[in-house]
Amino acid sequence: MTRAVRGVPPKLSAIQAPVRESLERVGDEIRRIVIADFDDIEEVNEHLLFMRGKLFRPTLLLLASRVEGRDHDDALTLAAVVELVHLATLVHDDAVDHSALRRGLPTVNALWTHQVAIIMGDYLYSRGVSELARIGNLDALAVLASAANEMSVGEMRQLTSYDALDFSEADYYRLIAAKTASLMSAACEMGAIVGAPEHRDALARFGHNLGMAFQIADDLLDYTGTEAVTGKPTGQDLRERKVTLPLVQALGKAHEDELREIHDFFTRVDPTDDEIARIVQIIMDRGGLEYASAAASRFAGQALDALAAIPEGPATEALSDAVSYAVDRRR
Predict the structure, then answer these.
(1) By C-alpha distance, which of 144, 126, 180, 197 is closest to 299?
(2) E strand segments, 161-297
(3) Whole-number mean pLDDT of the chain?
(4) Element (H or E) spanning 102, and its range?
(5) Sign of CA dihedral 250, 251, 253, 254
């Protein structure tokens, strides 16, 4: 079963409908896993649970586990663990980037310290690994550990990229494959492990391509979205000198004077809104946004192709709809 990405994306609530009951229990399962008898950790836990996101990755895992119509008790725990690992990466990213806000709320490093943020990220990840060891699912543990390793390597690649403007399109794809697509692929594969092992490879491939499309679309939102959608101020990637696909494309097409403007911008310690707007205009004029949008659509198509051999049903339909949602998250 393959479908084109629809013009009007579905709401996330509609995608989550086949697994709504389980998703409503994910928060309680996370709380059970991370509970601690140390007040300082519990205080940070409460903040993290309050700022928890839309549970997109747990949704993918639960849907993948049900494509054959089966229901497995361990799926709920795996969904909670995937969200814990996702939270851990966000806490670490915010500390590394010195970000003050996440989803409109203060980050752990802003409310406490960068040291607390690093320790809490480690705590969340270690609790997730411990839980997988407890239920004895070594296949799921191996998949998650591999994704966590990829994410760590991806973060290190980004940190050690000394000349951001030398970043190539291949570098960009390698980075987002590690930092974003690896965990979405892991979520889908882990769901398949407990509910549809015969579709494990296809669902892992689906998750990878979905993750690639998701991240490219997310990077586009930094140019076109609003803070209400992205959870961070628009233009934040440029403020942090992060080179994403729209800029990579524009660099190859920009005129000499525009290249000088871009290079000068990347020397600024605290660029102004007007300076950011100028760089955005150059990127738009050189077709960077259209190029990135087309790339997101290609990966979205490959994600849909991966679902071709999977039986039709509510869960598979929802996974297909998740592709449309990933490339156009306006609602």
Answers:
(1) 180
(2) none
(3) 91
(4) strand 101-102
(5) positive
Give the tens place of pLDDT for each residue, 1-21: 444 444 577 999 999 999 999
Beta bridge mates, 105? 102
Distance, CA of 302 to CA of 323 (rounded, Å) = 10
Per residue in 53-89, pLDDT tens? 899 999 999 999 999 999 899 999 999 999 999 999 9
Structural element, H or E, at residue 99: none
Mean pLDDT, rounded, for 198-205 = 98
Please name the fold of domain 12-327. Farnesyl Diphosphate Synthase (1.10.600)
Distance CA 74, CA 179 (A): 25
Backbone phi and psi for residue 106, each to the nearest 5 degrees, phi listed first: -60, 140
Q: Which amino acid is at 114?
A: H
Claim: this prediction has a pTM higher than 0.85? yes
3-state SS assignment for residue 233: coil
The domain spans of the chain are 12-327
H or E element at residue 105: strand 105-106
Q: Are 83 and 52 a contacting pair, CB within 8 Å?
A: yes
The number of residues making up the chain comes to 331
Q: What does the buried/exposed string (b/e) look like for 156-194 if buried means 16 or more CB atoms within 10 Å of the residue's CB?
A: eebeebeeeeebeeeebbebbbbbbbbbbbbbbbbbbbb
- Give the whole-angstrom CA distance, residue 232 versus residue 225: 10
Could you tell me which residues come within 8 angstroms of residue 251 by beta carbon, excluding any fewer than 6 positions away? 165, 259, 262
Tell me, what DSSP letter sits at residue 181? I
Give the SS3 label for residue 59: helix
At residue 22, what are phi and psi to the nearest 5 degrees? -65, -40
